[in-house]
Design a protein that fits this description.
The chain is an alpha+beta fold. It has three domains: 155 residues, Alpha-Beta Plaits; 401 residues, no CATH class; 39 residues, no CATH class. The chain is 59% helix and 6% strand. The chain is built from 25 helices and eleven strands. The strands form three sheets. Strands 1, 2, 9, 10 and 11 form a five-stranded antiparallel sheet that branches. Strands 4-7-3-8 form a four-stranded antiparallel sheet, with helices on both faces. Strand 5 and strand 6 form a beta hairpin. Helix 2 runs parallel beside helix 3, helix 6 packs antiparallel against helix 7 and helix 19 runs parallel beside helix 22. The longest helix is centred in the N-terminal third of the chain and has 57 residues. It starts with a strand and ends with a helix. About 7% of the residues have low confidence. It holds the Pfam family V_ATPase_I. One of its GO terms (biological process) is vacuolar acidification. One of its GO terms (cellular component) is plasma membrane. It is a multi-pass membrane protein.
Amino acid sequence: MALCQLFIQPEAAYTSVSELGEAGTVQFRDLNPEVNAFQRKFVNEVRRCDEMERKLRYIEAEVHKDKVPVPQVKDMPRAPNPREIIDLEAHLEKTENEILELSHNAINLKQNYLELTELKHVLEKTEAFFAAQEEIGMDSLTKSLISDETGQQAATRGRLGFVAGVVQRERVPAFERMLWRISRGNVFLRRAELDKPLEDPNTGNEIYKTVFVAFFQGEQLKSRIKKVCSGFHASLYPCPPSNTERQDMVKGVRTRLEDLNMVLNQTRDHRQRVLVSVAKELASWSIMVRKMKAIYHTLNLFNMDVTKKCLIGECWVPTADLPNVQKALADGSNACGSSIPSFLNCIESDEVPPTFNRTNRFTRGFQNLIDAYGVASYRECNPALYTIITFPFLFAVMFGDLGHGLIMAMFGAWMVIKEVSLSAKKTSNEIWNIFFAGRYIILLMGLFSMYTGLVYNDIFSKSMNIFGSSWYVPYNESTLEHNKALSMNPTESYIDTPYFIGIDPIWQTAENKIIFLNSYKMKLSIIFGVVHMIFGVCMSVVNYNFFKRRYSIFLEFLPQVVFLCLLFLYMVFMMFFKWVAYSTLSEDEAYTQGCAPSVLILFINMMLFSRTAPEAGCKEFMFEGQGTIQRVFVLVALCCIPVMLLGKPLYLLSTKKKHVKPEQSNGNVNQGIELQEQTDIGEVQPKPQPQSSGGHDHDDEPFSEIMIHQGIHTIEYVLSTISHTASYLRLWALSLAHAELSEVLWNMVLTFGLKDHNYVGAVKLYVAFFFWAFFTLAILVMMEGLSAFLHTLRLHWVEFMSKFYAGLGYIFQPFCFKTILEQEDEE
């Protein structure tokens, strides 16, 4: 990683940064951290982009409102040049105004259509009201309304008036109560609900309305009724009193509705054509505007020189990509026709660079697992490479089943084979996105689980006799019939040739199967755990060597690895020695199976300097001189503790190592110009900083602080060797639990459908197989798989990576259009 300065002419800045965004290999630094975002040079251009984004959002909303499909972009458009920006801005302005005008016209036409429709319904419904009134007689209605008037007033009264209109259906009860109260019961209200809902012109939602006619007498009551109608947002329409006039008005309204409906259809077709033509370019316009906005945001990170004739920027660039950056700058200058080329100048810096790990589709998932723990410090040893093998293998130790592993491998293989089409389908389902991102991890976990399932000789809790068992039954048929269980002596029933690979299938039928597998898998978990931890401790040598802390190899690494090997690797050695030395076929009674000592008891006695009396004819130790060797190992291991505790602090105190940090003035315009010549891109090699030790270094602190840190690390390491070794026993526990769950599911569910041999048994088998398959996928593959995955992740993060990995760096985040667009799409 190299820190570089960019010197770009203002007229070539836009195109140059555009080319760098397409390349995606440069991380820019902000040279104006104290300048407000609204006071930067290109703030007006950013606002123009925001305005164009607003127009695009409005156009997109109108397109989706009319359910017009938006085609996907096949070829990603490049950022528009400054001349194209003006054309794009004018085109967006024109398109927005056209759609706005069409929308307003459509709303006005729909409003007119709604009013005419309501008027038609009012005329049609009131016709029925008046016909009913003519049947019962107008006089009876009049008398019921004003029965308390005197004869003289009744003689002088005029004809009843009425008001007709429509009101929303949910407001009708309150509307009736209000009319009754203001008129003291002197209003006769008739209403009828509309059968079909009407369309709201503004929102397009369906609205249900009711036609009403209110009969009254007097102008004062009429004004009150109109005020109530206004308060309830009821629409009033003129309704002639005579039948002939109403019929003529209905005919006229229907004619106008037909004409208006024709105009609405033409307007809708025109709007549809406009939106379809816009939808074809909408995705491209959106990408171009977002790229343009990203470019101007990046240019705001640049600094202007004193003469205002050059833009200066600083960026981190991977050394291997320096030629690509130089080419992008040259292409940017040529694109705008600049006579002065832009150039790149690599400068020295004491600042810790960002961490950049090149990944591909296969390694990206494993790198994400490591980055979730912590991003590696610059040039720190990256455990992702080894995790590609160790992660699926330790998972498979816990998940070892050939059948379950095959299901997982098939699922991972399907995602890998279909990854192009599946990745093209954008989805917001987080669970699916997690599975798809780890498709290669799932594939490898499935394949490794198939291998360990073959070693365990376990497929859906059943064994396979592929190569023929190494055991045979020495009993005759009568003996087998009259005995429920028989013991098989290895001296009589074993052919002294082990099964070709894995566990002999005869253990599937043995009553002591769990006892045997318990011991076997427990020892395997300890062996794998100790080897894994020793490998992690050895990886620290790479960090010590690169960061120029070679004294730590002798004062930290050697005591740590000696302590770990003399105690726990020695315990692993005893396991192998016990497997090899003790046998039923041994001629020496002390090395027969009955005299094999417990490795755990030997290790405890070793640590406590105690002894256990052996049985008659047996030996306490596995070989001569083992007791003396064990005491020496423990004493040497104990001597390693003060070396780990005091070695490094005393060495630093004796050498009085001091660090003087130079000033970081990377933003200086003249830095790297007047003091050094132009650097050849092909010869640039960033200098590793020895003082940056990946988060492990405390050399520049006072002696007391160094002692405290070293004491904490020493205590943590000594205790963790015990706790971490015990933590690897989860390999044994989960493997045993997975096998037993699988066996229980087979015996309790699937066996239910295999008991009957008639037609009913066939039906039972279908039902039993359905439940067995469901629980196998849901519990044994999904839940047990997730559990084993989390335990494997913990073994790597805590037990393995804590031995050498700090993870205190920060990720390299290049300016890349592809990444920016993907992040915005996810949001």
